[in-house]
């Protein structure tokens, strides 16, 4: 949604391809609205001690995500329940506030993850770009 431009974009595809959705969204934002498509770079300013509140199990109808601190790195392990995607783990690097860039084992950047807080300021959800996944423990 781009409220300042009175615009919204919805992309529906028949099948599952995260790269296709990202590519379509980036192209639409650039061509229709002149918005840059470059992701912000991680700045590494959040210590692992301050990431402890993010650790836990997040689960929804179609996804389960375990956030942990392993080998001195914040990691997310994804299990898709409905989509035909094998489980995978990414390393998270801090961008700002509660937003993190994710990196695959081969070092390539994947999607951004944002942790959402409830009214009391506690981490309540993980937003992976396509799913809002509630924190269960």
Order of helices and strands: HHEEEEEEEE
Which consecutive residue ranges, at least 5 long each, have pLDDT under 50? none
How many individual β-strands? 8
The helix tally amounts to 2
Structure explained in plain terms:
This protein is mainly β and 137 residues long. 15% of the residues lie in helices and 37% in strands. The chain has two helices and eight strands, in the order H-H-E-E-E-E-E-E-E-E. It has an eight-stranded antiparallel beta sheet with strand order 1-2-3-4-5-6-7-8, with no helix packed on it. The two termini are 31 Å apart. The mean pLDDT is 86.
Quickly describe the structure.
With 137 residues, this protein is mostly beta strands. 15% of the residues lie in helices and 37% in strands.
Furnish the topology, listing elements before pairings:
Layout (H helix, E strand, L loop, with lengths): L17 H16 L14 H4 L4 E4 L3 E8 L2 E8 L7 E9 L2 E5 L5 E9 L5 E5 L4 E3 L3
Antiparallel strand pairs: 1-2, 2-3, 3-4, 4-5, 5-6, 6-7, 7-8
């Amino acid at each position: 949604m781009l409220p300042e431009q009175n615009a919204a974009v919805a992309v529906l595809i028949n099948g599952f391809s995260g790269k296709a959705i990202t590519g379509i969204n980036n192209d639409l934002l650039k061509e229709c609205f002149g918005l840059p498509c470059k992701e912000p770079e991680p700045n590494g300013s959040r210590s692992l001690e301050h990431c402890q509140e993010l650790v836990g199990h997040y689960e929804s109808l179609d996804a389960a995500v375990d956030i942990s601190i392993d080998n001195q790195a914040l990691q997310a392990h994804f299990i898709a329940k409905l989509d035909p995607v094998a489980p995978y783990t990414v390393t998270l690097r801090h961008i700002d506030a509660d937003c993190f860039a994710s990196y695959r084992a081969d070092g390539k950047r994947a999607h951004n993850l944002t942790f959402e807080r409830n009214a009391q300021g506690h981490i309540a959800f993980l937003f992976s770009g396509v799913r809002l996944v509630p924190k269960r423990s």
